[in-house]
Design brief:
globular; alpha+beta; 9 helices; 204 residues; binds glutathione; Glutaredoxin; 2 domains; Glutathione S-transferase Yfyf (Class Pi), Chain A, domain 2
Length: 204
């Protein structure tokens, strides 16, 4: 089973999930958007993006959430919750995609990725809107974490990894997280997990 990845936002989460679960994957570093690779990579993922999980029977999954769901099932783990806790986990996975990570992803792109291929300054209005949105969603997250160890209560779940997607890049992307104590405490808990803090250790 192969996991195609790059060091960026979403594949970082997929690699962290595989490491956390001890999944028996062969990690394959990829540059799907490189002009020399994009056409060939579209045969692996028509979106030319990573992560992609390729199973030994040739089945492929793209999308970080689908990969986390599959790896958790293969590991026999409840990291991807089933049963009564599943709707609340999906709440956070969906909220992260549509709200927090959408806004944080804009800052990640404009401040960390754009400078690697363009010397044009990031658009001021885009940055201002993303900053305001990240702050709003970070305050929501901080309040939700009050009195809870992890997002679903006492035990870590995929919701924590998915909502935390942008946190490893928070300093470089300038995410406005100041003064949010519950969020800071939870971020520290994530950082204490080897698979989260250093998912690429020992990989190319
Ligand atoms: N919705 C997809 C997004 C995947 C995506 O945007 N991947 C980006 C990195 S964050 C990518 O492959 N960029 C090219 C690269 O990293 O080389 C997911 O959640 O997995």
């Amino acid at each position: 089973m192969k996991l195609y990845y790059s060091p960026n936002l979403n594949p970082r989460v997929a690699v962290a999930v595989a490491r956390h679960l001890g999944s028996p994957v062969d990690y394959r570093r990829a540059s799907p958007r490189h002009p020399d690779h994009i056409a060939a990579f579209r045969a692996i993922n028509p979106n030319a993006l990573v992560p992609v999980l390729e199973e030994d029977d040739g089945r492929r999954l793209w999308e970080t959430d689908a990969i986390a769901c599959r790896l958790s099932a293969l590991a026999g783990s409840d990291f991807w919750r089933r049963g009564d806790d599943e709707p609340e986990m999906i709440l956070w996975v969906s909220w992260a995609a549509h709200h927090l990570n959408a806004a944080a992803g804009t800052l990640y792109f404009e401040r960390l990725i754009r400078p690697s291929f363009s010397d044009q300054a990031a658009p001021v209005a885009v940055i201002a809107e993303a900053m305001a949105n990240v702050r709003t969603h970070a305050v929501t997250l901080d309040a939700a974490l009050s009195g809870r160890t992890w997002l679903l209560g006492d035990a870590l779940s995929y919701a924590d990894f998915r909502v935390g997607t942008a946190l490893p890049f928070a300093d470089g992307a300038g995410l406005p997280l100041q003064g949010l104590e519950n969020l800071a405490r939870w971020r520290g808990q994530l950082e204490a997990i080897d698979a989260w803090r250093a998912p690429f250790d020992g990989l190319d």
